[in-house]
């Protein structure tokens, strides 16, 4: 039987410190999830693939990117995982943005415990004045609405990498009625049913 931690390490290139931090994060998530619905409890036994690797795979697509904004950060995927993997790299910083105060309090507790290069913002994603290289999100909204949340970040020079499900292509077709954009689709390396949507330039259809 395969070892999920060893598999994650092999695929992601994680260090011993990365693994140690992710174990603490998993413990904190499991404890908090018992009293606050952050992720589906059935998904926690598959944490290393479904959550950790699903998030960390984004770094293989933009390995030189140091600044990221995770919109609707929720339980911390992909943002906390990205911050753990980037920890110690000069100039690395992740903004975790969520409109729900109790989720932000959980995220801040994790950030403080692990001394992560993170700013947690309790607010609406589209109202923030954050400049980053990559804007990302997972399980937040359909592409048409998500691109609206992300538009200010694109205006400040960001590119988008969004973790989506099987309906990604249909969502992009719907979004094309509202937005002009350059987009690419790749198959998720954590689940062949998933898709990673990369978005370049973005502007609203006149």
TrEMBL record:
List the catalytic activities from the record: guanosine(527) in 16S rRNA + S-adenosyl-L-methionine = N(7)-methylguanosine(527) in 16S rRNA + S-adenosyl-L-homocysteine
E.C. no:
2.1.1.170
Q: Which domain of life is it from?
A: Bacteria
**Where is this protein chiefly located?**
cytoplasm
* Pfam families the record matches: GidB
Q: Record keywords: rRNA processing included?
A: yes
**Which annotated residues bind S-adenosyl-L-methionine?**
72, 77, 125-126, 138
Tell me where in or outside the cell this protein is found. Answer: Cytoplasm
Keyword vocabulary terms for this entry: Cytoplasm, Methyltransferase, rRNA processing, S-adenosyl-L-methionine, Transferase
Q: What class of enzyme is it?
A: transferase
Which InterPro entries does this chain map to?
rRNA_ssu_MeTfrase_G, SAM-dependent_MTases_sf
Its function, per the record, reads:
Specifically methylates the N7 position of guanine in position 527 of 16S rRNA.
Q: Which HAMAP family would you find in this protein's record?
A: 16SrRNA_methyltr_G (MF_00074)
UniProt record similarity statement: Belongs to the methyltransferase superfamily. RNA methyltransferase RsmG family.
Classification via NCBIfam families: rsmG_gidB
Name-wise, this protein is Ribosomal RNA small subunit methyltransferase G
Task: Tell me which species this is from.
Answer: Brevundimonas terrae
Instruction: Give the classification, highest ranks.
Output: Bacteria, Pseudomonadati, Pseudomonadota, Alphaproteobacteria, Caulobacterales
